[in-house]
């Protein structure tokens, strides 16, 4: 009888695991709903041990600054946050000071002052309407969370940035719209942002659109999840602790129950 | 039995005047528990653990959260980025909701499989269904608080359901919203209710436990405990088993929190709520999907709402729908087959709830919904007339332990 019930138990567990997988994957397959599939790249930050590539992130910041930041803000990020991708205090101070923010002086007048490390990234437009007006009605989304806010975010963004191709003959591309093979509906308001040598990398890396897209994606992945490296590191210790606790409590349980089972 | 149980004089002094220690000793230590419980009986204590975890992390989150349409989204991001270990607390809370439902759903299906809802445990079961209902309300309102796109549109869709009520529907919706659309007053009241409902749940959980301890746990064989030879004291036997179960549960939970924190969420909720932009597909959290599928399966709006709530309502009267005196499925061959069909049906409904409401998905949703109600309303009452149940064992200790000796488990523990 004991044998039978434990048999039954493991059978049940299997079924439950299976059902959980079904539930989760149904949710997931929905999220990946659009039928366009993107090339799956090998990201340094994917997987449970993955970390960010500092050099790539720094190049990505350069791409963001020189290309994207003309239209896209990063309002949830502060300049001081750049410390965790390898910049020192002076570099951050200088980087922040290139921008200016409004403040109210002692006489109650609105004046400009250079941005400080404690300030959030200065957005290119004062408000959403100004952003739309400057971009033919299309709103350039804030990039602070873009990787988390899209299904399969990193691969999607990289595909989108490198997905500008000539439109097929039968496809009409209206004025102010551009053809992108990875964008839902293929017509996107953003013109192709990345061209060969669009930026000049200080470390000598060749600035191909593929490379620049990869770097800026690495940078934005960090901006979406700045806690990721800490999270995974802590996660490893917690998992080791829990596996040990599971093993110890299992053997303690077996020992305590042994006389009852033997009866 | 009650005199000089405690050696510590302070404990003794207090217990004489306020018998909390006696109470705990009686309910958590000596509490006789069937000795044949399998791992599915771990999920009650896991649900309790999940509730406490949600309350503790929730209180900490509320210290840093701003319930205002202009600040809610950013305040959550501030927790994720600037509050010390805020990301950890928030991810525990966010994934904790999913794990709470996983645990509770397993707990419910265990009750269904082993007939734990039958006399004399009807009220225990009904209180459990009430907890489920309160959990759903709490989870729904909690999902609105980060004020992302799914928060806003989920709130809009679900609150709009009440407009299906004839005559007063529209007024009720306006009353729920505190205005003419989901807006700041809606967010404020949802925050307020999301904070207070968990404590109502704690209250009902206490009643659930009182009802449980009246007759003790059901067990895999589903026959009553005949005497001390059928039970073991709760401690150490089930405290250690619950600790082991908790460790395994936490391992899965931690894996989600640390390595896949957004797996069960929807990417759109990282886009701030925008009343002017409707997402392509509005889907609720996974644990509502079966009910969402039932809602959409009915072509009539009011009908859909009634069937959706009806899916929970049938659970309340379950003890009177199933008239078979045999509790455990182990002795009910036909019931057992249909149990697995019901489980499959619920998972199928969950899958269909995530799919767009078109084509084959609509047809399948209708079949699955029909089966759900057939199972409870027709099959359950009829089955006792058709089914030939297997003979029940004489007692718990006989089939499991081959006629083992008397209350040695208690004696063994006293020796230590």
Task: Point out poorly predicted stretches of chain B.
Answer: 400-409
> Would you count the extended β strands of chain B for me?
2
Number of strands of chain A: 4
Sheet bearing the most strands of chain A, described? 2 strands, antiparallel
User: Taking all residues together, what is the mean pLDDT of chain A?
Assistant: 88
Distance between the termini of chain B: 19 Å
* End-to-end gap of chain A: 14 Å
**What does the largest sheet of chain B look like?**
2 strands, antiparallel
State the order of secondary-structure elements of chain B, H for helix, E for strand. Answer: HHEHHHHHHHEHHHHHHHH
Structural class by sheet pairing and helices of chain B: mainly alpha
**What is the topology, as strand order, of the major beta sheet of chain A?**
1-2
Report the sheet-strand fraction of chain B: under 5%
Radius of gyration of chain B: 24 Å
Shape summary of chain B:
globular
SS class of chain A: mainly alpha
Mean pLDDT of chain B: 93
Describe, in plain words, how this protein is organized in 3D.
The complex is a heterodimer of chains A (263) and B (416). Chain A is mainly α. Helix content of chain A is 45%, strand content 5%. Chain A has seven helices and four strands; from the N terminus they run H-H-H-E-E-H-H-E-E-H-H. In chain A, the strands form two sheets. A two-stranded antiparallel sheet of chain A has the order 1-2. A two-stranded antiparallel ribbon of chain A has the order 3-4. Chain A is extended, with a radius of gyration of 25 Å. Chain B is mainly alpha-helical and 416 residues long. The model of chain B is unreliable at 400-409 (pLDDT under 50). Chain B has helices at residues 9-17, 20-30, 43-62, 72-81, 86-113, 122-144, 149-160, 169-177, 184-215, 234-259, 289-297, 301-316, 318-321, 333-354, 360-386, 397-401, 408-415; strands spanning 32-34, 231-233. In chain B, helix 5 crosses helix 10 (234-259). Classes of the chains: A mainly alpha (263), B mainly alpha (416).
